[in-house]
Specification:
alpha/beta; 13 helices; single chain; seven-stranded mixed sheet; binds adenosine-5'-triphosphate; binds the ligand CC(=O)N[C@H]1[C@@H]2OC[C@@H](O2)[C@@H](O)[C@@H]1O[C@H](C)C(=O)O; ATPase_NBD; five-stranded mixed sheet; 2 domains; ATP-binding; phosphotransferase activity, alcohol group as acceptor; Nucleotidyltransferase, domain 5; kinase; about 375 residues; carbohydrate metabolism
């Protein structure tokens, strides 16, 4: 049993951009943030990333999945070992390889039971399956942590958190509500493609990892016809909650195939920003500010394009004292404590699940 009160949890995230693993310590009782602890990052080596990439879109038992799980477990074990001494438990998200909530389900590679043995620590994992089984999207799951962040920063009016990872996701929330699962407290959903298509473009055309600082996009021209086609996608009109697989907007890469490098980068960057702005039309009430987390906030061109479509301030979460590189890892620390305490991790407003539900499995070391 977890000791009562606030505990130190070690959360990890290996996101859809496949860049590496984030790990962060957070002191929480599952409701409030009590303290932030150390954090660490381990990039995937090019060879590891190739194994993960080869398994994208694959389901358990299919080609390359076992190899991918091994890469995920090895990378996490090494990184988590450096921070585990201070932790009472861990939250392990794993690597999403495929996500099809109304079809085959959702698939995160990596076995939390293996990590529990290696780290000699209770590990909460498989956060998304039960939400999907109960009719939810299984994503996004960070919103309950966004709610705790909003309380931590002392927000009193509705605010929104935007994560610009491989895929984008938005959380609208009203911090005046008592809990994240209170009716009307949170509305969350994936916005559309964010960095994944840009990274894929840069890798295919120039062997680069990303459009550093948005430099390539800055020098290009946005192809309006492709943005028009994007805006016509039915996904944007679908009422939230809703979620996406990393590959769902893959057609964008084919659409920019005939453009020069800079125009292609500018167009994909505008596609990410347009998806966000279209997403904000689903907000139940206007927000006082949009706080941005995830790697895309390091891309000033994407940030400027989003700000141009919004009528509230758009700032990186650092503006309110949060760490945008570690916020998702912290989220899975927070959610791990919620699971251990029997608190819900998603609700109708965040994943579309029929009622508030606590996902996640707990694996305890045998010793
Ligand atoms: N300095 C930078 N300039 C431009 N882009 C950047 C920069 N730093 C990070 N990025 C982008 O952010 C991405 C990583 O973002 P992040 O780590 O938030 O994604 P993730 O957590 O893997 O994804 P998700 O949230 O979808 O699971 C990189 O792949 C890159 O495209
Ligand atoms: C299925 C899955 O792994 N989804 C990720 C992905 O990356 C961003 C977006 O799509 C979000 O829905 C989710 O991650 C964050 C951490 C979440 O669950 O809140």
């Amino acid at each position: 049993m977890l000791k009562p009160g606030a505990v130190w949890a070690l959360g990890t995230m290996s996101g859809t951009s496949l860049d590496g693993v984030d790990a962060a310590l957070l002191k929480t009782d599952g409701e409030a943030i009590l303290a932030f602890g150390d954090s660490a990052y381990r990039p995937y080596a090019a060879s590891e990333r190739a194994v993960l990439r080869a398994a994208l879109g694959h389901w358990p038992g299919e080609a390359g999945v076992e190899e991918a799980a091994e890469v995920v477990e090895t990378a996490h074990a090494a990184l988590m070992a450096s921070l585990a001494a201070k932790a009472d438990l861990a939250g392990f998200h794993g690597q999403t390889l495929a996500h099809d909530p109304r079809g085959r389900g959702t698939h995160q590679a990596g076995d939390g039971a293996v990590l529990a043995e290696i780290l000699n620590l209770p590990v909460v994992w498989d956060f998304r399956s039960s939400d999907v089984e109960l009719g939810g999207q299984g994503a996004p799951l960070a919103p309950f942590y966004h709610f705790a962040c909003a309380k931590w920063i002392g927000a009193t009016d509705p605010v929104a958190f935007l994560n610009l990872g491989g895929v984008g996701n938005l959380t609208w929330l009203d911090p005046a509500m008592p809990a994240p699962e209170s009716p009307g407290a949170c509305l969350a959903f994936d916005t559309g493609p964010a960095n994944a298509p840009i990274d894929d473009l840069l890798r295919a055309r120039m062997g680069a990892e990303r459009d550093e600082g948005g430099a390539l996009a800055r020098s290009g021209r946005v192809e309006a016809a492709i943005l028009d086609r994007l805006q016509d996608q039915s996904y944007f009109r679908k009422m939230p909650p809703k979620s996406l697989d990393r590959q769902d907007f893959h057609w964008l890469l084919e659409a920019v195939a005939d453009l020069c490098d800079s125009d292609a980068a500018a167009t994909l960057t505008a596609a990410a920003a347009t998806s966000v702005v279209l997403g904000t039309e689903h907000f139940p009430k206007p927000v006082s500010r949009l706080l941005v987390t995830g790697g895309g906030r390091h891309n000033p061109v994407m940030m400027e394009m989003i700000a141009a479509g919004m009528d509230c301030p758009v700032d990186p979460v650092e503006a309110v004292g949060l760490d945008g590189d570690m916020l998702e890892a912290q989220a899975f620390a927070h959610l791990a404590v919620r699971v251990a305490r029997g608190l819900p991790t998603s609700c109708p407003g965040t994943t579309g699940v029929a009622a508030a539900v606590g996902g996640g499995r707990i694996s305890r070391p045998a010793r």
